[in-house]
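Quick question, first post here. What does this chain look like in 3D?
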Amino acid sequence: MTSEEPLPPAAVPPTPDSQPTVQRSEPAPAPKTASPRVTRAAVIWSAVAVSLAVLVLLIIFFIQNQDMVSVKFLGWEGRLAQGVAFFIAAVGGGILVAIAGGTRILQLRRTERRRRKVSNL
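> Answer (accepted):
Ran it through. Tokens below.
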């Protein structure tokens, strides 16, 4: 054999570029790690923690807004702390939103009930 003749394939040392390509299927999925289950106790604990934080903020709000203000509403008149007046107004607004939301939910339920009744005929 001369140096001009190529070596037979078996005699050629394998290089990373000369190795046959093997078509691989998709890699196996990684094993799923057990994610922590959300329990009712965890949800309740989180809700209590958030509620306590909100209560602390409310206490700070009341302490910072202790100025007495005159309040008139539908013929009633009185004096109370500004923070309490704001809090009463916020609760009143929340009640109005709850009434409007409840009314809308009842309306949607009634519509769905009628739709089911018609489709069952």
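Residues 82-120 form the longest helix (39 residues).
The two ends are 93 Å apart (CA to CA).
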